[in-house]
Structures are given as C-alpha cells and as structure tokens.
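Example (one chain per record):
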Amino acid sequence: MESVLSTFGVDWRLLIINAVNFGALMLALWYFLYGPVTRVLEERRQKVAQGVAAAQAAELKLSEIEGSRQEILSVAGKEADGIVAEARAAALEKERQILAHGESAANTMIKDAEAQASELKTRAIEESKQEVAKLIVLGMEKAMSK
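Predicted structure:
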C-alpha cells in the first residue's frame, strides 16, 4: 500500500495530520458557528410560531368580539324599536287627550256662545217689545191728540 501512495506522491503522515486538522476545523466550526446559528434559527422559528399563535388567537378574539358586537347591535335595535313604538303609542294617547280636551273646550265655548246668543236674543226681543210698546203708546198719543 505504501508503494501505491509513494507512486502518487502521497505522504501518509501528512494525510493523517490533514485529517486531524480537518477534524479539528470541523469541531471548531460546529462549536462556534453551526451551534449558534441553529440556536438563532430555532429561536426565530419559536418567535414565528408564537406570532402565528398570537395572530390566530387575535383572529379568534376578533371573531368573538364581532359576534358579540352583532348581538349587542341586534339587542340595541330591538330596544330602539320598542322605545319608538312606546313613544308612538304615548304620542297617540297624548293626541287623543289633546283632541278630547279641545273638543270639550270647544263644546263648552259653543254652549257659552249659544247661551250668550240666547240671552242677547231674549234681551233684544225684550227691548224690541219695549220699543214697540213705546211706539204704540206714542202712536196712540198722537192719534188721540189729533
């Protein structure tokens, strides 16, 4: 074997020293370069995984909030419809009360006006009777004086 190596010009001692140097270089690179790089990559992978998990949790929370918002808006809409219906009913009742009060006030005014008109009519008839009586008396006096 040594003759084959010497034919090609390979020194077995240099080959062993180069193998030891290569092994030492591999260990040094493994310890100082590969180990820290893999730790950094693992940390980044964990941070990305945490970010994805946080994003999924935020998305779930957002969908829950959206659902509760829709529910709250639905309840608020129903309450608003109820309040509007109550307000309309109260307005109709108030309108009826005002109309009834106005009609009663108008009827009272009409009765008062009719009573005043009747009184004025009666008074006018009385005054007319008195005037007619005075005219008759004057006419009789004139007729008698002639």
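Caption: The mean pLDDT is 92.
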